[in-house]
Write a structure and sequence with these properties.
Layout lengths: L11 E5 L4 H12 L3 E6 L2 H10 L6 E6 L7 H13 L2 E6 L13 H29 L2 E6 L12 H23 L2 E8 L5 H4 L11 H12 L5 E4 L1 H10 L4 H15 L5
Parallel strand pairs: 1-2, 1-4, 2-3, 4-5, 5-6, 6-7
Helix pairs in contact: 1-7, 4-5
The structure holds NADPH dihydro-nicotinamide-adenine-dinucleotide phosphate.
Length: 264
């Protein structure tokens, strides 16, 4: 189903987790493309500094604090954004964490990761859907990861949260289509951000946040459901996930042993 592409004149863009990394870069890229961008995260000082850096761009950035794990916060921040800056036409649900874990299955890190990457994303999704559904228009993109395509060693919390986020998007796409809302899934490969800088694992084809942001913003302007990059990594991982389990585990295990990967 082809739904109308949202333009800067249709309303505001909202980005969660925009105080650093991919969210920050997408905010500046959208402001460069003429959008008014409302950015949220927990660190308001960081957000305000990013907003100042948009001075002189065709669009502008406005900052509001918003913790995706706070049950009431997403609804409240959306109400503020819409009352002050206008209707949200484009939402990029991007907030995410990849905490270090201790032991085989660190349940504390697992719960924290699911709370931000999955439940937090779902909170933002539910709140923005409530605004867009009566208008029967809007565009929502959720940032998952290529790490959600299939089980990877050491990625029990992060991988599960991203696999579930992908599934959530696939599931909601049917209902969103019927309501005139465009739902998109963003699956990046490795991007050089504070999240990845703390990790000591091989990161093939890693790219800068600015390059990732250009590809994400280009993806927003195209019709496809999934925006995934770099293509060679995403197609390779999709192909590996089609293998029967014995071949899949052999191949991934061999690659992990060769690279010394312990945790993502
Ligand atoms: P960063 O650590 O740079 O950014 C994470 C952002 O999420 C920050 O702005 C942080 O802001 C925000 N955040 C964390 N917890 C919360 C919370 N409870 N409420 C609101 N915001 C929160 O990492 P990236 O830019 O790399 O990650 C952004 C997204 O991209 C994540 O979902 C990540 O999983 C995904 N991704 C990243 C890849 C990579 O290689 N970097 C690859 C694939 C996907 P604050 O602390 O101020 O709240």
């Amino acid at each position: 189903m082809t739904l109308p592409r949202m333009q800067p004149g249709d309303g505001v863009a909202w980005i969660t987790g925009a105080s650093s990394g991919i969210g920050e870069a997408v905010a500046l890229e959208l402001a460069l493309r003429g959008w008014t961008v409302a950015i949220t995260a927990r660190r308001l000082d960081q957000l305000e500094e990013i907003a100042r850096r948009a001075d002189g761009l065709p669009g502008r950035i406005v900052a509001h604090a918003g913790d995706v794990t706070d049950p009431g916060a997403m609804k409240a921040v959306i109400e503020t954004i819409e009352s002050v800056h206008g209707p949200i036409a484009l939402a990029f649900l991007n907030a995410g964490i990849a905490p270090d874990s201790n032991g085989l299955l660190d349940i504390e890190a697992f719960e924290r990761t699911i709370a931000v990457n999955l439940v937090g994303a779902a909170r933002g999704l539910a709140a923005v859907l409530d605004c867009m559904a009566p208008r029967r228009r809007g565009h929502i993109a959720l940032n998952a990861s290529i790490a959600g395509y299939g089980g990877l060693p050491g990625a029990s919390a992060y991988g599960v949260s991203k696999a579930a986020a992908i599934h959530l998007c696939e599931t909601l796409k049917f209902d969103c289509d019927r309501r005139g809302i465009r739902l998109q899934l963003v699956n990046p490969g490795w991007v050089d951000t504070p999240l990845t800088r703390r990790k000591d694992v091989p990161m093939p084809f890693i790219m800068s946040p600015q390059e990732a942001a250009r590809r994400i913003a280009d993806g927003f302007e195209q019709a496809g459901f999934e925006v995934s990059f770099p293509r060679r990594l995403s197609w390779l991982m999709k192909a590996i996930n089609l293998l029967p389990y014995p071949a899949y585990f052999w191949l991934i295990g061999k690659a992990a042993r060769r690279s010394g990967t312990k945790a993502i």
